[in-house]
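Handoff note, outgoing to incoming analyst
You'll be picking up this chain. Sequence as last confirmed:
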Amino acid sequence: MTGSDEHTEQACKRVDDGMARVFGLFGKRWTGLVVAALMEHGAYFADLRRAIPGISERMLSDRLAELAATGLVVRKVDEGPPLRVSYRLTEAGRALEPALKELTRWAETYLPDGGGCPEQFRG
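Most recent structure output, in case you need it:
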């Protein structure tokens, strides 16, 4: 194997399946913010909607359903009136806290205010 072939083999190595699953879920817009909003404590749907500016009710509902289906969020219906639905993280959801805090530290260091992509990450 030549040096060029070895480099190509390394460059084309498949991404880890676990990483692919993580980004399959967290690569969707709003998912990380929903989890972050629930990190401190559970919340009602309307409170989550207010906590995440710009998210539509439909999108919030979709993301909460996905997170519940993966076992990261528990949905609880409080009998009314009025009927209210609350959400909280499961143990698996709360276990994301160190990773989310580390991502926050990374963003504070490497992403400029305003959320734009720094020059070194642009194509």
